[in-house]
Amino acid sequence: MEKQSVVLRLPKTLVDKVDEYKENKGFGTRTQTIFHLIQVALDHSTSRTIEIAKAIPCPKAIHPPLTHWASPFKFL
């Protein structure tokens, strides 16, 4: 497996929140915590997308009945 390095520049307030979350949940490193939070957000996003897709029905095609305005001209 190829390894890659990622450098993140985060505001100090966000780093403090990540560190607090790390301590509360018992993660060993800040990196583990950040990737855990990303995974949780992705899972939540995916499940939310599925919920929205189920809640919004796919619209059916609407074909209004022909009126005399839409019928061919009989006088031509």
Record keyword descriptors for this entry:
76 residues; mainly alpha
Question: How would you describe what is shown here?
Answer:
The chain has a domain at 12-55. It is elongated, with a radius of gyration of 27 Å. 53% of the residues lie in helices and 0% in strands. The longest helix has 26 residues, at 30-55. It has two helices and no strands.
Task: Give the mean pLDDT.
Answer: 79
Task: Note the run of SSEs as H and E.
Answer: HH
Strand count, sense and barrel status of the largest sheet are:
none
What is the CA–CA distance across the termini?
Answer: 75 Å
The fraction of residues assigned to DSSP E strands is: under 5%
Shape, principal axes of CA atoms:
elongated
Which value, in Å, is the CA radius of gyration? 27 Å
Helical content stands at 40-55%
Number of helices: 2
State the low-pLDDT regions, or none: none
Overall SS class: mainly alpha
Give a count of the beta strands, DSSP E runs of length 2 or more: 0
Question: Quick gist of this model?
Answer:
The chain has helices at 12-25, 30-55.
Which SSEs are present, and which pair or pack?
Elements: H1 12-25, H2 30-55
